[in-house]
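Sharing a chain and its predicted structure for anyone who wants a worked example. Both blocks are below, sequence first, tokens second.
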Amino acid sequence: MRRVDSTLLVGLLYATLTQVGMAVLLLATLTQARAQLKFETVEQENDPSFCFAISIRQTDTSCTHTTPCILSFTAGQDLYMLHVGRSDTQLVWYSRDRKRVIAQGKGLRNGNLWRLLLVREPDSIRLLSNGEQLIKAAVKIPSGGAFKYALGCSHVSAEEIRYQPTEPVFFADDFTQGDDDLTSWDKTGQWALQGVDSPQPNPNLSANPFALCAIVSQQKSATALTGYWFWHSYAVQASVKVQGNATAGLIAYADGLKSYWLLTLEPQGNWRYNPQGLIRLTRVKDGRREVIAEKKMPIEYDQWYELRISVDGEIVKGWVDGIEAVRTSINVFPMGQAGLYAEGDGRVYFDDVIVAPLQQLLLATTRTKITEQYTHEDTMAEWATFFGSFTKDAQDPNLLWHQGAFFGNFELILWLSDKGRSKGSFTFYLCPMQLSGTHPIAIRFIRRSERPHQIANLRVGLPAPLPFSFNAPITVGGVNDVLISIEYGSQMLKSAKVSVNSIKDAPVRLLRLSNRLVVMLGNKVIASAEHPAIAYARFISYRSDGYEPEWNRCDLICSNLIDETFSIAPTRWRSTRGVWQVTARWPCSPGWAWFGGTQHRFPTLWSKGSFEGN
């Protein structure tokens, strides 16, 4: 038998185009066998983040190698070699005549076919073999050079070579579309777009009255996949509703339909006052199922739930309505498509699908995304923005009331700018009812020049005459400091001075914390006062006399206020009587829809969450 070189070499080379000569010089300093490698160019300029897949097949099964492959990166004057052996994997740094082992990991398993996957991020390198992670190293290798690979033995061949630039995954679908627009989904089984009030949805006749429905029987399941093989480090979230004896599920990190992670939601029993159900996390590998974790939960039929599956580091988690239900640890780095799953006998509705990194998904959910979309719609802007939420008082057209009651603690963030004005006033009222108090708590911004001008007031109306006040004289051009005071009648409770520029550079924040009124400039507390009557304020109004804040920068925040447009599936609500669904509002105004209850004398919808305090 002919002797085979003791090292089978597979190389991936990073080399900047301007330093090809240096790359050749560095390679020449290595062993003669490495210098004779034949490199094939995959990409002239590699990307900061990418995935590279290559299958290495050993054609002569009688050959044995202590180091079946080497991956090579050249960056400037440095060379990085990833030695992948049967006993271990090492990442080695070379620079002229110096070398250093940066990281060490596991070796290859026995066999004659290794599917290697390189995941390159700006600050790390990860190598997998047949789905098993061999090594992960925190190392920053400059991008921009040529990307190459090489085989170092005639007894191996390269197959299925793929190079893909990557970025954080983001995909969303609320199914406001026609059947012909579902091209981003690869479906098996019976699927249909259905309006909750019509089996034939028309995306032009409502905001979003429909979902993607899977129709299943005992004999067949239904799946719908989206995405690509290189998707990784993401979470899948969707709103789901089960009818009949069906089970709803989310698929994550799928390699076709043979290997994937599956999170299922299964109602069991239909007793409304004692609902039972099961949340199950399953690993499907090469077609074989293994239940990893499960938990009993009160899951009902015909109710909307928010289902989510995520991979956070080495932990797979399953969530229901934002609460973690199941988890397991893994020692692999999953990659692959995301999808929807249904089985059993009945119908499963899916809506508001979003695929994104977990932290991004938690911070910017589909609900936030769609609400922001409608904020910029002309008709919605009449009330969805902070300024547009106010309507005129019936008796005083110069007084505008916010349409909502604010319970518990709240915060007003107000950006003020005189914009060169010498006159004008602005008044905010916080009242126990929609009547401004005779002696309210007041926040005033007054210019102290030769002749004081009142620029802004913020008043809190109270049940009894309690003349609290907050004064902030503002000057032009920084002539004087800003004097801030909180007063109760003629009594000065608190006072402070700040510079004029600090008012312009930071927002004024007013916080109602139970019976305490706190005034802040940016993140710094300027003054605060306590009184039992402060907690009674519920309604907010304002009056403008030629001066207004910068509304696009102002916010009014209340922790116990539910802002629900019902533009997506009502996963935060539970229907106990009647049928609650979206219906078209008016054919002449197709951008709107009602969410209402029918088929019962007293349709009732409860919030799933509970609230403390007032």
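Comments welcome. The helical segments are 20-28, 32-35, 358-363, 366-375, 500-505.
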